[in-house]
Amino acid sequence: MTPLARLIATRIRLSGPMALDEYMRLCLLHPEHGYYATRDPFGAAGDFTTAPEISQMFGEMIGLALGQAWLDQGRPAPFTLAEIGPGRGTLMADILRAIRIVPGMAEAARVALVEASPHLRRVQRDRLGGIVHLDDVSQLPQAPLLLVANEFFDALPIRQFQRGAQGWAERVVALDAQGGLEMGLLPIPGDASLPLAPEGVIRETCPEAAPIVAQVAGRIAAHGGCAIVVDYGGWDGQGDTFQALRRHRPEDVLANPGEADLTAHVDFAPLAAAGRAAGVRASRMVAQGDWLLRLGIESRAQQLARAGEEGVMAALHRLTAPGEMGHLFKVLAFWARHAPVPAGFEPLDDDADDA
């Protein structure tokens, strides 16, 4: 057992089975043994590779989309340029480079990064220089806000509920006969918050996601701006999507607590609902590949290839092809109600009348 697995097993012996959100939170953020607290997980030497690590084009397209939103909303100065879960700072570095072509935008930007990992904070500070670190989105300034969240919501702790013959039960982490970790079920009869469903159906909820969106949307509703969320997932999804990744390979979610990345697919429908409830408009969910192509990533790839950049067309394929990241990852936008629709997006049908 890993050191964190032993700690979790001890806690279960003392307090009983552990909900999945508590298990995820410990595995990812425990101050001594947590995954993000102890390592740099990104790239070929880590456990997974994100889109910004594949090519600068990804961050450049996001930067230009944010640049257009800044122009469309009257060039507010100063404004907060923020990222939630910024990893190594690669995406923000590419965004900052891209917005330099927008006159006055880089000078007006005040960069804020929402990051929980002390290790990654040091990496980001070394890479980006003059930035402000925030513990959570509630600390975002009361100011115009342009924000991006790439592969952030998938790492938020989830809970899982399974429909059985006698009603709903919550999936939890328990101990087997040998004292190891195993999945179990705790009945929760009479829970009216869960819908009727056939036996065997698994529903996932992410308690932290909607409040985070509400905080971001509240800033945008009050002061203007735009937020772009990129992640893998779907709309009104169901099923067991809880997964672990270690050394670029999937493994059992209970196998190596603290040493593997734990994620779950993002349900974009509640995110859109939370943003709209907080007073902003929301887009239809769009596949990452389709969105990047709308923004002109092909032209940028051809430009880089002509300049002698190696691997550009392979990176373009990986970012946009349906069989690669192009359709696995989705994109959602929020923006101020008075503002034009951000580049590459379409408003939700019942938001269109507000345009």
What does this structure look like?
This protein is of the alpha/beta class and 355 residues long. Helices cover 36% and strands 23% of the residues. The chain contains 14 helices and 17 strands. The strands form 3 sheets. Strands 2, 3, 4, 5, 10, 14, 15, 16 and 17 form a 9-stranded mixed β-sheet that branches. Strands 1, 6, 7, 8 and 9 form a 5-stranded antiparallel β-sheet that branches. The longest helix is centred in the N-terminal third of the chain and has 17 residues. 43% of the residues are buried. The model has no long low-confidence stretch (mean pLDDT 93).
Give a nutshell description of this structure:
This protein is of the alpha/beta class. The protein has helices at 3-15, 20-29, 35-38, 51-54, 56-72, 90-98, 105-108, 118-128, 209-223, 268-277, 288-295, 297-306, 312-320, 325-328, and strands at 18-19, 79-84, 109-114, 132-134, 145-150, 159-164, 167-175, 181-187, 202-205, 225-234, 243-246, 249-251, 261-263, 266-267, 281-282, 286-287, 329-335.
